[in-house]
Amino acid sequence: MKSPILEAENIQVFYGAVRALKHVSFHVDQGRIISVIGANGAGKSTLLKAVAGVVPPAEGHIRFEGQSIKGLSATAIVKKGVSLVPEGRQLFTSLSVVDNLTLGAYLHYRRKGREEIASHLGEMYTLFPILKQRAAQIAGTLSGGEQQMVSIGRALMSQPKLLMLDEPSMGLAPLVIAEIMQTIVRLNREGTSVALVEQNARAALRISRYAYVLENGRVVREGKSGELLTDPAIIGDYLGEA
Amino acid sequence: MDSISLGSQVVQYIFTGLTVGAIYALVALGFNIIYNVTEVINFAQGEFVVWGGLILAVLAESLGIPLFFSFFISVGLVSLVGTVIYWTGIRPLRQPTILTMIMATIAISIILKGLAMFIWGKDPYAVQPFVEAPPVTLWGAYIQAQTFWVLGISVALVVALTLFYQHTLTGKAMRACADNPGAAGLVGISSGRMILFSFALSAALGAVGGAIITPITLMEYDRGAMLALKGFGAAILGGLGNFYGAVAAGFLLGLLESFATGFISSSYKDAIALIVLLGVLFARPQGLMGSSLQGDE
After folding, report:
1. A167-223: per-residue pLDDT in tens?
2. Where are the domains of chain A?
3. What is the pLDDT of residues A18-45, one digit of tens each?
4. What is this structure's pTM?
5. What number is the ipTM of this complex?
6. CA dihedral sign, ordered B124, B130, B135, B141
7. CB contacts, 8 Å: B190 with chain A
8. Domains of chain B, with CATH numbers?
9. Any idea which architecture A1-81+160-242 has in CATH?
10. How many CB atoms are closer than 10 A to CB A110?
């Protein structure tokens, strides 16, 4: 049994009077990929934002490596080793690809040498060779798939122990989605724990070990991804015809 | 003495215009630095120029500190004023909106003006030119040596600022924060720190403007509002948020003013900036070179 790197219990998040998350609990085991699937508006993005410190949870506990991170600022949470690849990439669109990536390591500049950061940058180019060719290009001019790579690369530059991805497949062609998913698997094999939020349930379930199904801000199902993939109810609601 | 030829007059007006224009450009840049990170128009921008000039006058003339050191101390102190403004006037705002922050900067400018009157009184202060040199004669026009300092330092500042934004980590972080504050937070760039820094930087820029122009125009406590207005006109004319636009528009506004003073009447001098400001807002609100607002939804 692996110990959890992230444990979230009983999280409640309100947007004004609207309760976006209702007593949601989930955990990510060390070195594993978990996925959260559900329809648009089910609260998936809110869940990741609550963990990342972007929206404050009104109730509940969030522990990372055994320590509470609830109520910390987004910056403090990145420092602890949790990095979010936000929905819609959220690049610095007027800056170059290399600047986007380097700024991902912003918090490390004081502690680490430029050489070390340059070597991380090299790793990103190994992971996404196309980005090396595009290094000087303005990020806003890249294709959707390339932008997603920059967004993932930027998050990785902070050397996270837990990488959270919010809808990385959104708006991408099937081949590009496959490439992104393969990259996530590769990163996971190299030791990064992953929490993946997806509307593309099939792609998410295929690469994750454990999954949560969110509906109207509640976890309505959870279980091993392999079992959910063959569950008739899940197929009917989320996977459609195979 | 013969009357000055038209050609000499034109040269004279050009240099006068460029000198004043350089200060407008620096004020406009100051507006843009803060605007890009916060979308706030800091109406205290003109006060930085006044304080830069007045502090320099005290240090160099009253205390007799060498001009070179006085210059940097003055810029440093005004930069500190900029950070204090952020800490005391902007950061404590509860539920800050763009509008409340702009209102706060207007209040701050009034306070700074009052303080300046309290400290320095109502008389204008003089500062010796940076280097004692006779005026240069150019096509019959007399150009003070200080004019070249004003132009040289302004151009050097614009180059330095460009390099800062393009090549330093902090400069890039400030651009990132202006581009996408949410994403900047996700990579650990604190927007509060960047805003603080933008206040310090734009205050320093204003102070430089005050320090270099005071040997030519003297400085008194109540110049800030008009300088802010002219600089704001230049920032709008150049396209709010656009750095090169601000510089070009600053010089253009200075030239327009100078020629209007020379060929029409000096009474209309201050009206020029307002006419330009209104004209741009009516006809081309994105400014001559396009605003950073473009592309935002």
Report:
1. 999 989 999 999 999 999 999 999 999 999 998 899 999 999 999 999 999 999 999
2. 1-81+160-242, 90-159
3. 889 999 999 999 999 999 999 888 899 9
4. 0.87
5. 0.88
6. negative
7. 75
8. 6-283 (1.10.3470)
9. 3-Layer(aba) Sandwich (3.40)
10. 7
